[in-house]
Amino acid sequence: MLGFGKKSGSGNASGYLRDEQLKFKVIINTIEDGVVLIANQGTVQLFNPGAGKISGWNPEEATGISVHAVMKFVDEKNKPYALTDNPLQKVFDTGQTIRDNSAFLVTRSNKSLPISLNVTPLIDDSSNVTGAVAVFRNVTEEREEEQRRADFISTASNEMRTPVAAIEGYLSLALNEKVATIDNRARDYLEKAHSSTQHLGQLFQDLLTSAKAEDGRLSSHPIVIEMGSFLQQVTDDMKFAAEKKGLFAEFVTGSGKTINATGKDLGETVVRPLYYTLVDPDRLREVITNLFDNAVKYTDQGKISIGLTGDKEVVQMYVRDTGPGVPAEDQPHLFQKFYRVDNSATRTIGGTGLGLFICRKIVELYNGRIWIESELGKGSTFFINFPRLDTKKATELQAADASNPQLQPISSLATS
Ligand code: ADP
After folding, report:
1. 354 C-alpha vs ligand 1 centroid, how far in Å?
2. From the CB of 73, is ligand 1 less than 6 Å away?
3. pLDDT digits 0-9 by tens, 378-397
4. Rounded to the nearest whole angstrom, what is the distance from the C-alpha of residue 154 to the centroid of ligand 1?
5. Ligand 1: which atom is nearest the Cα of residue 206?
6. Measured in angstroms, how far is the CA atom of residue 172 from the centroid of ligand 1?
7. In angstroms, how far is CA 228 from the centroid of its own chain?
8. Is-above-0.70 flag for pTM?
9. Which tens digits make up the pLDDT trace of 79-114?
10. Which residues pair with 202 in a beta bridge?
């Protein structure tokens, strides 16, 4: 039997123990959180009243049977957890504390409740996992509150976009020499007002997009894309913005020419690999544009390269700049909402801190991954990996899409 607390010593040990046990019982029985003690064979050893209240199981019934019979988890799409992903199994497999804030607990009456779950292993002196303690909480109210907040943000930003667009339009008119006559001082003020209004418009747009991304309402129509030609096109379209600031912009991929070891062009054309993936082109363009705009915004001189490479499984693209770089301690937080690096190199440049958060949300929508590699003073590279579709699968999906335009989305075919 597993136990908590210290072993009893000498003297008035039994009184002390009784007190300790009493305190332990009082806490376990009154705490609202669910607490479950699991033996290493996976049987429930203790199921407190809090756990009973959340799960609908009577603690006496739950004790002594497999924890997997009592605590069943599903994800947000109501799909049951595979055993290997189940925190109550993972804790024994890894010997590490497992936290899961996205699980739903299926109650005894088959209702799914959002929970916040923490499972800690009990480890003996020889490093064996002898059991585990699961602590969980019903977070329905918090989730509803978050939802209300997100709804408010989307409604407010949506409503505010229209007047802001109108103000921006009138300011543009006032600044247009063919339409209005203003003196130089007024022009200076109006230009500042115009640029702040544009910033405000962008902020509302970003808030709206990030609220949608958070609750899964981002519209998405994935199709098969050949990344080489797609990125070439996107680079051509964006080049001008970089050149305006005196920066060189290029698209880099397999050269399409054979070279020898000295780098001499042998003049033979080789076939450039075709990198297919399944994404919504508009969403992907949003991501690349965001990374490219950041690269232009934060880089004073040098060049911006958009690159493409990959292997059998993965399509990898990157946006590289010769800008100030991002300090190592900021890198893990860069893709969080509203995160901006607070250093002299970038602080004075306007932004919302939402761009990279939105990029991450979009990339994750297509099972991709985004990250940064950067050294201070030496520039930054933002990488994105997407699962690669082989040419056969890509052609099949394209054919299915072309022959049956009404029966989209193609994404459902890809997973079939
Ligand atoms: P924003 O640019 O609107 O502030 P982002 O989410 O796009 O928001 O970027 C977050 C922060 O990451 C920026 O404020 C900036 O400090 C840093 N950052 C992003 N891209 C770069 C880059 N290419 N070079 C240097 N710093 C960058």
Report:
1. 9
2. no
3. 999 999 999 999 888 888 88
4. 23
5. 3
6. 27
7. 25
8. no
9. 999 998 899 999 999 999 999 988 999 999 999 999
10. none
